[in-house]
Amino acid sequence: MEEDLKTSAKGQILSIRDLPTLPKVLDEVTRLVRDPSTSIEAIAKVISRDQVLSAKVLKMVNSPVYGFPGRISSIQHSLVLLGFNVIRGVIISTSVFDMMSKTMEGLWEHSVGCALATGLVARKAGLKDPEEYSVCGLLHDLGKVVAAVQLPELHKAVGEAVRERDLRWFEAEKAVLGFGHDRINAWLAQHWHLPPNIKEAMSSHHNPERAQLYPLHAAAVHVGDFIVRAFEYGSGGDDQAVPLAPQALTTLKLKLGDLDSVLDAFAANLGEVSGVNFAPEEA
Amino acid sequence: MMQKIPLALAKPGMKLAKPITKANGMPIIASGVELSESLIARLDGMGIDKIFVLGDAVAASQNPSERVARLDRLFRRLEDDPYMREVKAWLREYFTIKAAADAAVAANGAAGGQDKG
């Protein structure tokens, strides 16, 4: 019975008809990347053909979230500095939020804030390629946006459970749907062929101890999500702190006190990061 | 600065930036009114789901005194967990020190202004 609901909900969520279509250039680029002889110039050329998309990508990668503020002048440059996986994640998140920006108020800010915090945590922990961690933070709640559009009635019921029973969004999802956005994230990551580190961070950010292959990615996003909630920047759908898994810090070889400088940098960069907004301004 | 927020995120102490009106445009609550728990509950009862409030989200997030004031609310369902009590105490100390530093800078700034004057 419960499995039936899950299967039908999964079908509904992934029904191609309504799922946001990703920019065409992404398919083309994904094909190109499979061929190891493809040059970065060739990939950059394809992405640059979509000027609106390129402008959005450049705006995002030049924000303090990625650690090169205002220094990336072209798509080719962004691919060299950040790598294709990061650029692909940026394209997916901006495309999805672009089409669904009004579905969950505050979730875009929460996601950008989480990307900033996650990247800072990764740098503090001395991890290689911190930008890859930032993009995991950016995508960590994508399942909430997609569920809001694909399952509008259930989404509304989740919101009501948050309000009436004082639940966190994740708890309310499990109470109403029988599963959370972590599960939806895993389906989406599979569907969009996201790299396994991003997939595991998206699906395990609430339970980083369950991450099998990329515990560092899951742990960094877990801590990033906790930080953006402590600052209450944007909204993940409720106004509560999330339980912090002590093991996440152990995995990252960090102590609570090590996060003081992360909080400093987060607060200092928040103003600039808040300008990274693709939603049309509302009067 | 003004921002539109869902009622779910309204907090006591926020001030209305636009009046709340009925569907026919008749104002029910004037702009500038400070929200209280009971007013928020009443708005909820009236089926209001979005409101305009003064202030900007970034400033509230960056203000350490505001962060200290929000901790009890944020951690209300985690008080039974000893580790989360430790986490909360760490955040309280961090933001309290930041707030004191801000206050000291503000006081110096005011004194500096007087010197010049």
Write the layout of secondary structure elements.
The complex is a heterodimer of chains A (283) and B (117).
Chain A: H1 2-14, H2 24-34, H3 40-49, H4 51-61, H5 75-82, H6 84-100, H7 107-124, H8 130-139, H9 142-150, H10 152-165, H11 169-177, H12 181-191, H13 196-204, H14 215-230, H15 246-252, H16 260-273
Helix pairs in contact in A: 2-3, 3-5, 4-6, 5-6, 6-8, 6-9, 7-8, 7-14, 7-16, 8-13, 8-14, 9-10, 9-12, 10-11, 12-13, 13-14, 14-15
Chain B: E1 2-6, E2 20-21, E3 27-29, H1 37-45, E4 50-54, H2 57-62, H3 64-74, H4 82-116
Antiparallel strand pairs in B: 1-4, 2-3
Helix pairs in contact in B: 3-4
Summarize the structure.
Chain A has helices at residues 2-14, 24-34, 40-49, 51-61, 75-82, 84-100, 107-124, 130-139, 142-150, 152-165, 169-177, 181-191, 196-204, 215-230, 246-252, 260-273. Chain A has 283 residues and is an all-alpha fold. The model of chain A is unreliable at 279-283 (pLDDT under 50).
Radius of gyration of chain A: 18 Å
Structural class of chain B: alpha+beta
Shape of chain B, please?
A: flat
Number of strands of chain A: 0
Give the helix tally of chain A: 16
> What is the straight-line distance between the termini of chain A?
47 Å
Biggest beta-sheet profile of chain B: 2 strands, antiparallel
Characterize the biggest β-sheet of chain A.
none
Helix content of chain B: 40-55%
Q: Regions of chain A with pLDDT < 50 over 5+ consecutive residues?
A: 279-283
Largest interface: A-B, 31 and 31 residues
Oligomer: heterodimer
Biggest sheet strand order of chain B reads: 1-4
Count of individual helical segments of chain B: 4
Q: Secondary-structure element sequence of chain A? A: HHHHHHHHHHHHHHHH
Large-scale geometry of chain A: globular
Helix content of chain A: 55-70%
Structural write-up:
The complex is a heterodimer of chains A (283) and B (117). Chain A is 66% helix and 0% strand. Chain A has 16 helices and no strands. The N and C termini of chain A lie far apart (47 Å). The model of chain A is unreliable at 279-283 (pLDDT under 50). With 117 residues, chain B is an alpha+beta fold. Chain B is 52% helix and 13% strand. The model of chain B has no long low-confidence stretch (mean pLDDT 84). The interface between A and B is medium-sized, with 31 and 31 residues.
